[in-house]
Amino acid sequence: MRGTPTVLHLDMDAFYAAVEQAAKPSLREKPVIVGGLGPRGVVATASYEARAFGVHSAMPMAQARRLCPNAAYLTPRFGLYRRVSEVVMGLLRELSPLVEPLSLDEAFVDLQAGGAAGETGRWSAAAARAVGERLRRDIRAATGLSGSVGLAGSKMLAKIASEQAKPDGLVVIPPGTERALLEPMPVRTLPGVGPATAQTLRRAGIATVGEIAEAGEAELVRLLGRAHGGALYAMARGIDERPVVAERDAKSVSVEDTFDTDLTDRARIQAEIARLADRCVARLRAAGRSGRTVVVKIRSYDFSTLTRSETLRGPTDDPAVVREAAARLVEGVDTTAGVRLLGVGVSGLADFTQEDLFAQAGTRAAGLLGADRPPSPAPPAAADGPAAGRETQEVRHWLPGLDIRHARYGPGWVQGSGLGRVTVRFEQPGSPPGRVRTFAVDDPELEPSEPLPPWGGQASEPAIRPNVMSSSEAGAAAPGTPSP
């Protein structure tokens, strides 16, 4: 444990929904729900306006629609979320070389590794708070979004502090106050306490973190085993020695889709597996990696799930190789009862691509292989989410929330479609709330469009941080409830 609160945890507020609100002026301060829009879709993120109705992440979308029928229900735009995340992570790396991303919207930062701070050149609670406040201002200036910041002497406490700071706040846990803060909290507050562990503790009469500490290490080891029980006892006393790790090496790359209706046709299942394999390889290549084990995941109509894997002779990032291996794996599985979910992954990762192998070999044969074989078609860029959230394959069905451009009216986004018509709201980041127009779904003047970032302008990172609307200006935007 550190004597100064120099471990920072940033958690962006309702990130996906906040990006959509920032990019779509008519949705500011309105309930927005992002996720899979099909019958089996789930909520990825809900704005705070939607959370007031009881909507939360991982909730079935059908339940969310019952709780908040007037919200804007949008398809995820993961490519845009990644671009915004890169801007935020860049700001964190300006503070310290030790940044540990946990997801697109969450990361730890070791401020101590970034050097001294404050007038005295030494870290203090006041100096750490000043850094956290400046970070929040910089994020809002660069993206128009808000983030919550926690500062403490350990990762566990910094994350707890950021939860307490939500939304759009900052909390510092001064050293020496950890035990008093933790004691009344429920056991699920501690890392590693999931439903099963919580139930075991509850049966033993342990419901709070303070009661974990009172139970003693021997009792916790008896209940949970030596490793888990010992670690939990230390955390209950505020002790967490886990370091901030700059690079967390991925063990695998995978994608999966849940389908609105169960798949029974073998040809359709193989086609979906081929598409998922291409998406997986696209992510693999984007990370500059290759892998030697191909894994398929199959979830049946009754939620039973099985995986099959095949290890290749060497690492690959060739989409044809991954497609063929995945197809062989699925061929041996009985899918006649119906398939609810399919997934394809690659593990056993290596830090090179197939092209690197050819370059290292430096032989004419390798050159001929690259010259004579026609290039594989580029794998379709797709969102990492449920089938209902695929931008590239389903965008021509004009899914709500996706970007669109009209030859005369310019950029906008799909507000809804059905019965051969599509409704578009023509607005863009930084503009006033736009007008709504309706067209035939096959209108030749309509075409899919690349998303504009929340800071407006072209779809690229801003050279300088732009001025953004204040919360009062955003609230003054023209009224109008978006249609789901």
UniProtKB/TrEMBL annotation:
Residues 368-392, 426-484 are annotated as: Disordered. Poorly processive, error-prone DNA polymerase involved in untargeted mutagenesis. Copies undamaged DNA at stalled replication forks, which arise in vivo from mismatched or misaligned primer ends. These misaligned primers can be extended by PolIV. Exhibits no 3'-5' exonuclease (proofreading) activity. May be involved in translesional synthesis, in conjunction with the beta clamp from PolIII. GO terms for molecular function: DNA-directed DNA polymerase activity. This is DNA polymerase IV. Monomer. Pfam families: IMS, IMS_C, IMS_HHH_1. NCBIfam families: PRK02406.1 (NF002677), PRK03348.1 (NF002882). Its main location: cytoplasm. The keyword Nucleotidyltransferase applies. Residues 381-390 have a biased composition (Low complexity).
